[in-house]
Structure to design on (436 residues):
């Protein structure tokens, strides 16, 4: 329909005559929409007390970068290391993993450009729109850890570019789009693509090393534990991982909850073009119902291990107070607006997808062992939430959490068989391919 002046005038008059809406107008224009609509009742229902509470370790800070998936993975490791080695605090270098992920993603991008020369225009556009970015999936960080190990943050500290990655990404993607053109033109002319690719990857490596710093191949490290004992290390990043982390990363599987019609439960899925390390670990998910999804997370925490998870953190999120709850803001009473889409509809209509990875470090259980709220360790520093920790209501978890990572031992034989079966390949733009 055409928006006529008479129609708009009618809307104007109706709003102007509504005392409630004029009051909301005053509050929202002065304080901001969400501040004006904040529900006081949501605070009382999400008090930060939990029947399982695994850590109070200081939180980390990803700063102005999209490295939450790395931070979340490294945080799950550091909790174990802090406890096992009785150290006051230790932080693993997120910048080290960041360097190698950028390096591997650049090579992955070139691999897709070369191997998909006959690609259709939409898929080529998909690859070129964002040749690489900061975000990733669990299996992608596993591929980095398995190939490059980890180092302490003291050995490879933050740089200007790792703390604020906008400029780095801008020029790395500019370079990669140019590389895509050069590679496709070489293929058309029948030229030596291998030699060209090696030259381009040297250029990429030089750019990353100059911007982020040359990562260590061998290093020395030492700390005193709570018993005042000196612990020393000398070796490679992979040896450091083996000694101070030691988790067998092949023991972990990605579990998703995607209740859309195109993804039947108890089947495995992967996503076209999604990855970072060529010949590294494949990104793969097992889709299960939400009740089972939560039971798996609880089982791992009951065994004393925190849980990497991915969610849509911006949905109904009170960042200042660290609350993730469906009643955080009252749109219905204030504006007569009711959001009626369910989880499947939000995925189908591009309203929601995984945007952020954090760590589940606690859960409150009722007398039947069912979850009522969850303790969440974020990576936004200690000035948000309760010293960086958030509380998520159980209903919020149902609606906006999409992925967890748990050890295989918690799966049934049927679930493990489904995970290990040949996965259904989803299109590159499927929401389950979103990068946290």
């Amino acid at each position: 329909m055409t928006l006529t002046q008479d129609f708009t005038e009618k809307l104007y008059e109706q709003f102007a005559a509504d005392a409630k809406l004029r009051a909301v107008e005053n509050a929202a224009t002065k304080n901001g929409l969400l501040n004006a609509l904040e529900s006081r009742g949501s605070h009382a229902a999400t008090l930060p007390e939990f029947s399982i509470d695994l850590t109070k370790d200081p939180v980390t800070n990803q700063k102005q970068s999209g490295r939450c998936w790395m931070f979340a993975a490294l945080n799950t490791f550091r909790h174990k290391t802090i406890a096992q080695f009785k150290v006051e605090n230790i932080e693993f270098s997120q910048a080290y993993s960041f360097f190698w992920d950028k390096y591997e993603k650049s090579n992955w991008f070139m691999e897709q450009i070369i191997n998909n020369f006959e690609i259709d225009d939409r898929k080529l556009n998909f690859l070129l729109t964002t040749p690489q970015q900061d975000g990733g999936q669990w299996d992608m960080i596993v591929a980095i850890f398995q190939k490059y190990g980890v180092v302490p943050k003291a050995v490879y500290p933050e740089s200007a570019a790792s703390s604020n990655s906008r400029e780095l990404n801008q020029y790395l993607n500019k370079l990669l789009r140019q590389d895509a053109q050069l590679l496709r033109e070489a293929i058309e002319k029948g030229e030596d693509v291998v030699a060209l690719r090696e030259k381009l990857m040297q250029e990429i490596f030089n750019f990353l090393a100059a911007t982020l710093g040359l990562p260590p191949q061998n290093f020395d490290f030492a700390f005193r534990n709570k018993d005042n004992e000196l612990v020393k290390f000398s070796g490679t990043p992979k040896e450091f991982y083996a000694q101070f982390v030691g988790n067998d990363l092949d023991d972990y599987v990605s579990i998703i909850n995607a209740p859309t019609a195109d993804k039947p439960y108890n089947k495995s899925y992967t996503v076209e073009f999604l990855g970072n390390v060529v010949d590294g670990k494949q990104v793969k998910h097992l889709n299960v119902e939400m009740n089972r999804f939560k039971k798996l997370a609880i089982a791992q925490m009951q065994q004393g291990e925190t849980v990497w998870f991915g969610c849509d953190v911006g949905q109904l999120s009170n960042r200042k107070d660290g609350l993730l709850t469906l009643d955080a803001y009252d749109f219905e009473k204030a504006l007569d607006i009711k959001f009626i889409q369910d989880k499947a509809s939000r995925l189908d209509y591009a309203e929601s997808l995984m945007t952020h990875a954090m760590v589940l470090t606690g859960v409150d259980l009722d007398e039947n062992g069912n979850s009522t709220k969850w303790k969440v360790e974020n990576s936004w520093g200690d000035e948000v939430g309760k010293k960086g920790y958030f509380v998520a209501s159980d209903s919020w978890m149902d609606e906006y959490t999409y992925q967890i990572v748990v050890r295989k031992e918690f799966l049934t034989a049927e679930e493990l068989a489904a995970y290990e079966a040949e996965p259904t390949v989803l299109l590159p733009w499927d929401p389950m391919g979103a990068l946290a």
